[in-house]
Amino acid sequence: VNATNALLTLQFRGLKLIIASNVGRCVAIIGDLLALPPASISCDTDALRIEVHVRCRWNAPEWLDGASSLWSNGRGYHLYRIHGDPVVLVDGVAWARFHRAARCLRIEGTAQVADDEFLLTQALLSTLLPSALRLWSWLPLHACAVDWDGRAILLPAASGSGKSTLALALVRAGFRLVSEDMPLLKRDADGTFRVYRFPEHNRVLPATLDFFPELQGVSSWATPSGPKLLFDLSKVYGDCFVEESRPAVIVTPRIAHAPVSAVRPAPAAAALAELMTGMAFGSTGETMADALPTLAAFVASCRTYALDTGTDFDRLPHLLRDLLAGS
Amino acid sequence: VTAQMTQRIPLHDRAAVAQRVNDEAVVLNTRTEGYFSLNEVGARVWDLVDGNREVPAIVATLLDEYDVEAAALRTDVDELLADLARHELISWVDARA
Predict the structure, then answer these.
(1) Any residues with CB less than 8 A from the CB of A211 and at least 6 apart, and which?
(2) Which of A273, A276, A285 faces B15 most closely, judged by CB atoms?
């Protein structure tokens, strides 16, 4: 029996998140990552538990023998599936499993879990959190979502496709940010789709800051997180966030390595493929299948474009605002 | 069992998920994250791949549904299935003789 030494209860709309650990620092790291209010007593009792257990020495989970391997990066980071549950394993250090039936995201590992913010939040927690949120009808998208006057543009793309840079270029031009990396899609009772903010601090590569003069000083106070810097955008741009928006346009970006950006209509299937790919990481075929019809209906409800992102960051926001006109 | 008696049957890969949107479909391998867009006829081929139908049966069904020339259709279906196999979206099983 493991004693729980730290406990934090947060609320995300109707959902309660209970974060527990035998090491207080793990709870503090996750609490810092998720800028969510504490749960009220009257809040819905339906809860997602996030449990982090730090051990003195590494123990591979005994159920790993029965797990089927889904993916490995060749450097000790693996995805598995066991009884339909997604599992992340970092060799010799830690594992995370989302127990769907128990509605519990369990992380176990060595002291490194408490010492390495990037390992805990990005490698372990954020990989499995989307699968967990889908149980509550939130559909996390791997996309940047920005709002202009109540309507949203979604920019779905793989890591390294310039989402963070686009988010900055658009926010500094007056767009408001729903999410840089993980907006949550939900279909309302009337069939309307909305994207919601799941509050996490922004992460950018140090090199990205060089594009924007007002961000030159950020590296002196931002928190390093793996290869990126973690910081609160509102400290630079003021109140630049919006809690929800109605998506009208999906734009699939890729870095063009050219001075001038170009946008063109693209088939809905291309946007769907990008969104499906973003959902695949940390998912299994079974857990994805339920979400796909909703995702396809969502794509069909939007106009779809492809964007070659250039370095014309002052012109780019106008290009994207024009896409919202008439929608 | 001679070569002529063995028909190969296409079967969806376990890691493949497919979804239609408008007149097209996207098939994704959740393991490799490789994907493939299919047009309307391609999406119909995907639906007909069920681990039981042999390729001639798939082609025969399509000939009933679309106004196309048989030999050209067979070539297109063979090429599509070869592409899907290359992307690990389908595999081949031998039919029992």
Answers:
(1) A165, A168, A169, A311, A313
(2) A285
Q: Which two tokens stand for residue A216?
A: 């030159």
Q: How far apart are CA B66 and CA B74, in angstroms?
A: 13
Angstrom distances, CA of residue B42 to CA of A110, A272, B24, B46: 49, 16, 8, 6
Give the number of other Cβ atoms within 10 Å of residue A21's Cβ: 26
Q: Which of B14, B20, B33 sits opposite A285 (nearest CB)?
A: B14
Helix (H, G, I), strand (E, B) or coil at B70: helix
Tokens representing A50? 């996030």
pLDDT the model gives residue A223: 86
The interface residues of chain B toward chain A in range 24-83, judged by CB-CB distance below 8 A, are 24-26, 28, 30-33, 35, 37-38
Q: How many CB atoms lie within 10 A of CB A1?
A: 2
> Would you call A35 an interface residue with chain B, using a CB distance cutoff of 8 Å?
no
In whole angstroms, give the CA distance from residue A286 to residue B87: 20
Residue-wise pLDDT for B14-41, tens only, equals: 889 999 998 899 998 887 778 889 999 9
ipTM score of complex = 0.79
- Closest CB to B28: pick one of A276, A284, A296: A276
Q: Which of A159, A140, A144 is nearest to A227 (CA)?
A: A159
Q: With an 8 Å Cβ cutoff, are A292 and B17 in contact?
A: yes
Angle at B64 between CA B61 and CA B69, to 5 degrees: 100
Residue of A nearest to B30 (CA): A280
